[in-house]
User: Fold this.
Amino acid sequence: MALVRDRRQINLRLPLPSPSEHRSRFPPPLPPSAPAPTTSAISAADLEKLQVLGHGNGGTVYKVRHKQTSAVYALKVVHGNSDPAVRRQVLREASILRRTDSPHVIKCHGVFDLPGGDIAFCMEYMDMGTLETLLKNGVVFTESLISKLCRQILTGLEYLHSHKIIHRDLKPSNILIDQKMEIKISDFGVSKILQRTLDPCNSYVGTCAYMSPERFDPDSFGSKNYDVYAGDIWSLGLTLLELYVGHFPYLAPGQRPDWATLMCAICFGEPPALPEGTSGEFRSFVECCLQKDSSKRWTATQLLAHPFVSGVDLQSSA
Assistant:
């Protein structure tokens, strides 16, 4: 089992965002046809801020506590004066989170407006942060631990794909984890709900480092009817490699990526492989994920039957 250093708890007794005359009014959070929030009883007034968990992409994430129940949540606040592209991502994420109900997809307990045009998501709180957090803290991911985490990620991906949802930005920083080593797929800002079976999914959204070859160059690596869900499987393979080797597998440790270098490596180079000494089952699993020809890549359902993860008991993953 991985050992993680105790986190230093910071108690930032800051108020929730206050109204601002300088912020433009945030557009309606969801289209009229979207279903109601999972839990409509929670409002900003019910929540007490405990600390800042992170910043980025036009907003801030806070650790908050419900004043009456003492339940702890993560509150993602996106500012009303954010870039229009960020606001579109907010609407997309809100729509997807309200559709999903899986133990391995982050749960949203409500989406509501804040004074000044901000919008907030009240979501599950995962006390260990992300898989990227663990990597930065020096956690060593063994094959055994990776297989347990991987089965949970695959179960979440199978659920999403069965509901015609493509994540499109799967990576260590978008996979949350708690002290029981239970994981939740999060951050659906660039995800897509397919309206038709053959909807294209090769746009340059998400993090290019984890982008599959067919999304860089669909003419060379895709086909007219290629599996649009296969890009998530490629991203999963790179994520597992990164967890095991401790750095992004296409680059040397500490090297900063750039679009041209990554595109050339992913499209023209051979897929990265596990180092010597790893088990045949682990190597086989990663190879099934990192097939440059998307038609040869295994699906989430097929991978759940792979020997690397098929024998994992999720009840004992803690």
Summary: The first helix runs from residue 84 to 97. The longest strand covers residues 47-56. The chain is about 30% helix and 15% strand. Confidence is low (pLDDT under 50) at residues 3-40, 194-206.
